[in-house]
Structures are given as C-alpha cells and as structure tokens.
Amino acid sequence: MGSLKSLFLLLFLVFLTPQLAESASDYTTLVYKGCSKETFTDPNGVYSQALSALFGSLVSQSTKVKFFKATSGSGQSTMTGVFQCRGDLSNSDCYNCVSRLPVLSDKLCGKTIAARVQLLGCYMLYEVAGFSQQISGMQILYKTCGATNAAGRGFEERRDTAFSVMENGVVSGHGFYATSYQALYVMGQCEGDVGDSDCGECVKSAVQRAQVECGSSISGQVYLQKCFISYSYYPNGVPGRHSSSASSSSSSSSSSSSSSSSYSSSSGQNTGKTVAIILGGAAGVAFLIICLLFARSLKKKHDDY
Question: Does the keyword Kinase apply (predicted)?
Fold first, then answer.
C-alpha cells in the first residue's frame, strides 16, 4: 500500500505541475506606478464614464494588437490613453495582461487626472485633456538592478556585447528584440509609434544607464519614457530562450484618435510544447502503473479467499 500511495502522490504532482507553472508566469507582476498628484472632481460622473469607455476600448484592442492609442469623451472630459504589450507575448497573454490594468490603475492611483501602470508584460497610460507634462523620451521612469553581482572576470564584456547585438536588433526588428548570448538574455522594446532611428537612440541611452548604474549586477531593468531594456545572467545557460524580433504596423480609426502596432514572436512556445508533452507522458505512465497495481491487489484478495 505504501508504494500505491506514493504513486497516487506522484500522479497528483504530475497533474498539478502545469497549473503551478502557469501561475508562476510573471508578466502580470507590477513593476512601477506613476500617479498624478491632482485628482479630478466628477459630480456628474462624466469623467468616470469617459475613463471607463477609454479602458474598454484599450482592453478590447489588446486581443488583436500589441500597441494602441485611443481617445474618449469630449470637451474638458476628453481622455487619451495608450497600452503596449511586450513584443514576445501572445495575443491571449497580451489581453490577460492589459485587462488587469484598469482595476490596478484605479486601486493604485484612484481618480487622478493622469496615471501610468507598468507590469512586466505590458503598461497602460491615460491622461485628461489639458494635462500637459512635457517629458523627454529619454526621461527615466524606473530602474532596478539585481542584488547579486556576477562572480569571475569577463561578465561585463559579455553583457556589453549582448547589449550591442540588442541595440542593432531593436532597430532592424522595428521596435522589439530579444536574444541570448553566452548565458545572458537581453531584451529591448520601444513604444509602438517611435521610429527606428529614435528607438535605437532610446535603447542606447537605457543601455548606458544600465552599464553605469547596475555595474556587475547579474540582472537589471531600465524603463525610459519611450523604451525599456532588461537583461538577466544565467550561469547554467539561458532556459528555453532564443532570439526574437518584431515588426510593427500602425492603423488609425475615424471614430477615435488611435494607432496600433502588432508584433509576432515564437519565443518560448516550443519550450512550452515540449514541457506539455513530457508532463502528459509522465501522467499516462503513472496512471497505467496505478491501474496495474490496483488489478494486482484485486487478484491477491481473490486468491486469499
């Protein structure tokens, strides 16, 4: 019976593992928030209605594209907003990420006249008409460096080489690029309506900040107004990653002032399929063994009688 219980436990863990892996997905993790100090007074609910309509428009588009701008309301209650997903997310993951942002924005910022919420996989920004905040595309919004420093010599040289490849790739990839290089995984992305040349300059600026401020840290993220970069060092090799880039396209709508860009990438999909096949096979084997043991136990009881 002890072996039978162990097999039941194994089968339980096999079926549980995909759910644990799925819940471990980190693209919905909060990175930072930016909230205006000024709130809007809304006795008639006009601003709330415009904001709700804006959120609805942005979320609905996240099933189709990775970048979208929209306008809602009229007059003083006019609101503009934008969302963008990371270039390596699927359409369903993009939607899953963006659909969380309206609730998070309200929870973290309340009824402010402007707010930006950044998750690892996407961000959303909105502002009320008349809110003027001239910010350079190179303005830093958030920066974080890993607490652990790389051991041994040569790390920074390898990281800088990976950065150089990414700087070129994000231009040729029209706004998004990710690649592995000697145990390093680097990623760069620009806002969807930024031109290739400006994108390259923005990413270069973010890289320079990471080099200076993160030093030999094994990981880092730098978010500027119009782009972001991230890097991670895996001493035992980058797990299930490969180079990916993205192409962008823009569209406009007469019903609202909007633009969008769509990306395509297969990064990580092959790994997921392989894991699913392995787990399915393991579950099948465990189930077969349990059936055989159960049949044997029935036969033993019959022989005892």
Answer: no
For residue 199, which amino acid is it? Answer: C
CA distances for 88 relative to 135, 188, 201, 248, 281, angstroms: 27, 11, 21, 13, 28
Given a contact cutoff of 8 angstroms between Cβ atoms, the answer to whether 40 and 305 are in contact is no
- Measured CA to CA, the distance from residue 256 to residue 71 in angstroms comes to 6
Q: Express as a percent the part of the chain with pLDDT over 70.
A: 69
Q: Which of 242, 248, 229 is nearest to 166 (CA)?
A: 229
To the nearest 10°, the Cα dihedral for 26, 27, 30, 31? Answer: 100
Tell me the three-class secondary structure of 162-206, residue by residue: HHHHHHHHHHHCCCEEEEEECCEEEEEEECCCCCHHHHHHHHHHH
Note the pLDDT of residue 107: 95
Q: How far is CA 74 from the centre of its chain?
A: 32
User: What DSSP character marks residue 149?
Assistant: B
**232: nearest Cα among 183, 191, 304, 198:** 183
**pTM of this structure:** 0.71
Residues 122-145 pLDDT 10s: 999 999 987 766 566 678 899 999
Whether residue 234 contacts residue 182, with contact meaning beta carbons closer than 8 Å, is answered with no
